Amino acid sequence: MQPGPKITEGKTKIIYAHPDDPHLIIMRHKDGITAGDGARRNEIPGKGALAGRTTANVFALLNRAGIPTHFVSAPEPEITIARRCMMLPLEVVMRRLATGSYLRRHPETPEGKRFDPPLVEFFLKDDAAHDPQISEAEIVARNLATPVEVQQMIDTGRRVFAVLEAAWAAQEVTLVDLKIEFGRAGGALLVADVIDNDSWRIWPGGEKGRMLDKQVYRNAATVDEAVLADVRARYEQVAAMTDAFAAYGPSA
Q1: In whole angstroms, what is the distance from residue 95 CA to residue 118 CA?
Q2: pTM for the complete prediction?
């Protein structure tokens, strides 16, 4: 598909106007991978197609579950067609188990502490400020979202987590935490952007040492060809595992 004009470009994707429908966009997933607010950057050939494939599998499952998303279709592995949204500058993180940055902020918490229901935290998208945590009250005070929308993000975020947690549990994988984003379209909040292997922590068998997600890239002391090949292999494995989501869910 030949896209329309480029709207914006980020670290891992390019957004284009749809050539025929002003209410849609075309998202091309790039091969780039970053960490440390972009301080570490590499290219992994084929990562864009794997990210797009995982995103399509995840969003198709959410759509079947009746969760409002921007996802329309994925005509090619590296291409997503979606509803055009005004994105909120927020990351919404749901945590089932305490690990990672949560422990750095709360060192008194034992690793692996379970949150039930999942803990929901908000972070302001601002690389220069290292994506600081932001409270619900600050979100409203800055007119980033209304109180009703904040509660909707919490409730919808937990629904998204529940659907994906169950889908991963069917393959004996623990969904530890998950980051999603929201956009406004037609006056409604939609789960938008991407949900791929950069968006979560997943531990097969609940074992941190078997992690399959982006954390293996973040944890690498140095990055060489062997590390990138290992990361790509994990992303390919996750994409294949999310293919199984098509057989899971309300209408599967």
Answers
A1: 5
A2: 0.95
The C-alpha atoms of residue 206 and residue 223 are separated, in whole angstroms, by: 26
C-alpha span between 135 and 87 (Å, rounded) = 18
Say if 215 falls within a structural domain: yes
Is 61 domain-assigned?
A: no
Question: Is residue 94 in some structural domain?
Answer: yes
CATH label of the domain that carries residue 206? 3.30.470.20
64: left (phi over 0), alpha (psi -120 to 50) or beta: alpha
217: its two tokens: 């890239």
Q: For tokens 């896209």, name the residue.
A: 3
Domain for residue 187, yes or no?
A: yes
DSSP SS3 for 160: helix
Task: Give the lowest-confidence range in 207-216, 218-227, 242-251.
Answer: 242-251
How many percent of the chain have pLDDT more than 70? Answer: 98
- Range of 215's domain? 86-224
| Alpha-carbon span 165 to 157, nearest angstrom | 12
Tell me the CA distances in angstroms from 17 to 5, 20, 53, 82, one per residue in order.
Answer: 5, 9, 21, 10
